[in-house]
Amino acid sequence: MSDDGLLSSLRYLFADFLDEQDNTPPFLPDGLPDGASSVVSDGIHLLMDYQGAAYAKLYVERLQRFIGHQDVDAAMFREIARLMANRMAYEDAIRIAQLKLAEFRDSDGRVQSIDALPAVAAEPVLMVLDKLGWAHKRVSIPFSAASRWGLRRLKIEAWLRRWRLFSIRYSEERAWVERWLHMIARSLAKQPNATSAIVDTATMVEGYGDRYRQGLADWHAIIDGLAKPTFDGALPLQDLAGAVAEARAAALPDPRQVALKRAIAQIRAQALGTGANAAA
User: Fold this and answer.
1) For the chain, which residues make up each domain, given as ranges?
2) CB burial of residue 111 (10 Å; 0-12, 13-18, 19+)
């Protein structure tokens, strides 16, 4: 994560927690590409509902990095805006409560909840679960709006969105989004033809629980094994977009990442061999 990105995230985190900002949604930024206004507007409204004005302003500030960039066309900008809004509105127990309140219907949902606890509470729980060998088992709570208590409980969960800012998951998501944006920027500078593939890697990280952890681990494996060394000049990979697609195709729901690691190793070996032959 860049220093500027970290400072922006922290500034909005504390502003929102201390209620130092009003609830006025941010304005659409100037210079948006054709057709992007509706996408960005939808993102702003989603994040206003999800977390509040400060969080929506962070979304707009993040987007401003790419406005007017010569290698970011309208379609790519819209995709960055859409994917970032969806990622910033990640699914957790508090979000499920918000959605249940919005629907207010007589139905039950189940959601994994450990990651939504504040870090000070979640870390000891996760440590105990790990000792028992249960760290990756599902831990669920039923949510219902069918009773007066159920509705009150849902209201409390939704109010707790302020504490989301201090949860383990929020910290992980903040760091991940900033790194994703940083990799997009590096691709624009080093290998523009691969930028769309880097943008699309956001779809690897979704959901919650095991699905989320697996997608995040696979994303980091591809970025650390292929994208970052290419941008650093350590890996002479001419077709990064193709390499990313090949690696993603090899990713399986396997915590050991056997097939994915094998594919990345083969891609690297081929690139390094080709580079050595070219140098000779």
Assistant:
1) 1-89, 93-164, 167-280
2) buried
Entry pTM: 0.77
Alpha carbon distances (Å) from 143 to 4, 55, 96, 127: 38, 25, 8, 26
pLDDT greater than 50 at residue 109: no
Contacts of 148-154 spanning 24+ positions with Cβ under 8 A: 151/101, 151/104, 153/97, 154/97, 154/100, 154/101
Query: Per residue in 216-265, pLDDT tens?
Result: 999 999 999 999 999 999 999 999 999 999 999 999 999 999 999 999 99
Paired tokens of 23: 């609830």
Residues near 249 by beta carbon (within 8 Å), at least 6 away in sequence:
263
CB neighbourhood size of 241 (10 A): 17
Looking at residue 122, its pLDDT comes to 54
CA distance 99 to 53: 18
Overall average pLDDT of the 81-94 stretch: 92
Q: What's 68-108 look like in SS3?
A: CCCCCCHHHHHHHHHHHHHHHCCCCHHHHHHHHHHHCCCCE
User: Vertex 67, ends 61 and 68: CA angle to 5°?
Assistant: 150
Contacts of 93 (CB under 8 A, 6+ apart): 111, 112, 113, 116, 141, 157
Share of the chain above pLDDT 70, in %: 68
**Angle value at C-alpha 89, between 83 and 93, nearest 5 degrees:** 145
